[in-house]
Amino acid sequence: MSKASNKRVYWAIASAALLTFIGILNETSMNVVYPQLVKQFGVPLSTVQWITTGYLLTVTIIMGTTAYLLRQFPARWLHLAAALAFIAGNLMGTTAESFGVLLAGRVIQGIATGLSTPIMFQLIFTDIPREKLGFMTGIAAMVISFAPALGPTYGGLVAASASWREIYWFLLPLACLALIGGQLFIRNQPFGNSAPFSSGALVLLALALSALIYAISLIGKGGFSVSFFLMAALGILLFLAFIYVNNHGKTQLVNLGIFQSKSIWLAALTYFGLQFVNIGLSVAVPVYAQYVLGSSSLIAGLILLPGSIVGAILAPISGTLADHFGYKKPLIFGASLFVAGLILLTLIQPLLTPLLFVLVHILIRAGFNLTFSNTISNATTLVTRKQSADVNSVFNMVQQFAGSLGVGLATALIAIFQKTGSGSLAVRTCQGGRLDFIVFLLTGILVLLMIIGNFKLQEEK
Questions:
Q1: How confident is the model at residue 439 (pLDDT cuts 50, 70, 90)?
Q2: Which of 196, 319, 337, 356 is deepest in the core (most CB within 10 A)?
Q3: Do 297 and 156 form a contact (C-beta atoms < 8 A)?
Q4: For range 18-23, the mean pLDDT
Q5: Among candidates 194, 134, 157, which has minimal Cα distance to 25?
Q6: What angle in degrees, to the nearest 10, is found between the helix axes of 354-380 and 133-161?
Q7: Contact yes or no for 318/326 (Cβ under 8 A)
Q8: Which of 410, 387, 132 lies closest to 256 in space, CA to CA?
Q9: 163 by DSSP, 3-state: which?
Q10: Which pLDDT belongs to residue 364?
Q11: Where does the chain cross the membrane (predicted)?
Q12: Which residues fall within 8 angstroms of residue 211, CB to CB, at 6 or more apart?
């Protein structure tokens, strides 16, 4: 690779990373203004959470198309479509006079992020040498893990000094910059597809994921009711139908053949668990801080900032460590820190203050960022270079759906306690928050066990 070509590749990745960063930042930037939106639009918390859950769900569904799209169309034009969709959704959000319009704008922005994130990873996996893969994947992981953690801080700062609408306005110049950079530097060429697009599989996948997320939201309205179990069962049946159509049709939406490897299975579940907790905390912590601790939206957002900074610093370092020493030690050590932080959060919940929240979150984020990027990097080393697009697409779908599920469950558990619990609103929210923290802790323990089991499998081969 020539020096000029090398520079163009990095600028291309930077352009895709910028669009991905502001897209994911926007996912969680509205989390701190949930109480304001409840009052302004006259809708309950279980409905307001759809501006985040719906966004993430849209991202997940769109990512289901990217394995095909990245083989079929130049990444440059896909990036252009993503940037234009983000700008359109942004304008809808900032001018919305009803909750429906606000939600529609968020869905359109979700289309943008669903395209831009896999584009960023595809540029890395196809244009970056293997010896630098860990470092560059660490940079990408910093983008997709730092942005959602920074989102509430950004949203809190803007909402405290202006209004929640300015959260959208300030992102527009960056979206335009990403659009220009993408058109100037992205030159990645597609491999081509030998079969047509599987629209039936996409429809079934979209219906399945939507049903599952809607089932989770029903917990916030009526607990674990008959409606919840029926909708969850429908989602599972639709997902099984998706798998059948995807594997037995003329073409595949995604190559699920990568899951013939048990190590890929475990890596995907690990990736899911990490992002489930990460995004779940990004909404649970600000909501808890405002309702229980009486913090302002600014303080609620700032609680997550130090941990986000620590995580951002550690993300590329974790990739470099993996490049030099292998994936096993950084992953196990990171997951252990992750679990230690979640144990501490659960144990000291009755004593929590904004400062204690900050300290515990730093520990959680340090563990998360030592683990997150290395999980997908390790997975890509277990497949062929051509299958990297499938790992890219599937793993990004997994982590976005995990985030959607994390937000949905975290808000649902708080909402049901607010609705049916006893005591003041603060006490009821505290009860729901405690259950959130326990769920996150159990997920973290499973993540650690899966990582240990995965490396045992890899070492046996």
A1: very high
A2: 319
A3: yes
A4: 94
A5: 157
A6: 150
A7: no
A8: 387
A9: coil
A10: 95
A11: 9-28, 48-70, 77-93, 133-155, 167-186, 198-220, 226-245, 266-291, 297-319, 331-348, 393-417, 437-455
A12: 231, 232, 234, 235, 238
- Dihedral, 452, 454, 459, 461 alpha carbons, nearest 10: 160
Q: What pTM was computed for the model?
A: 0.82
> Cβ neighbours of residue 367 under 8 Å, at least 6 residues apart?
334, 335, 336, 337, 338, 339, 340, 341
For residue 215 the two structure tokens come to 């089932």
**Structure confidence at residue 235 (pLDDT):** 94
How is residue 131 annotated by DSSP?
Answer: G
Local structure of residue 73 (DSSP, 8 states): S
- Contacts with 420 (C-beta within 8 Å, 6 or more apart), sequence order: 223
Contacts of 323 (CB under 8 A, 6+ apart): 131, 132, 133, 134, 135
- Tokens matching residue 161: 């000094």
Q: Which domains does the chain have, with CATH numbers?
A: 3-197+251-460 (1.20.1250.20), 198-250 (no CATH)
* Residue 189 DSSP SS3: coil
Q: What's the pLDDT at 102?
A: 94
Six-digit token string for 319: 């990739």
The C-alpha atoms of residue 27 and residue 345 are separated, in whole angstroms, by 24
Tell me how crowded residue 36 is: count the other CB atoms within 10 A of its CB.
Answer: 16
- Dihedral, CA atoms, 371, 56, 403, 102, nearest 10 degrees? 120
**Torsion angle, CA of 404/409/414/419, rounded to 10 degrees?**
110
Locus of tokens 């820190």: 337
Work out the pLDDT band at 436, boundaries 50, 70, 90. very high
Amino acid symbol at 284: A
Both tokens assigned to 192 = 């081509």
- Alpha-carbon distance 437 to 344, whole Å? 10
Distance separating alpha carbons of residues 133 and 13, to the nearest angstrom: 13
Residue type, 373: S
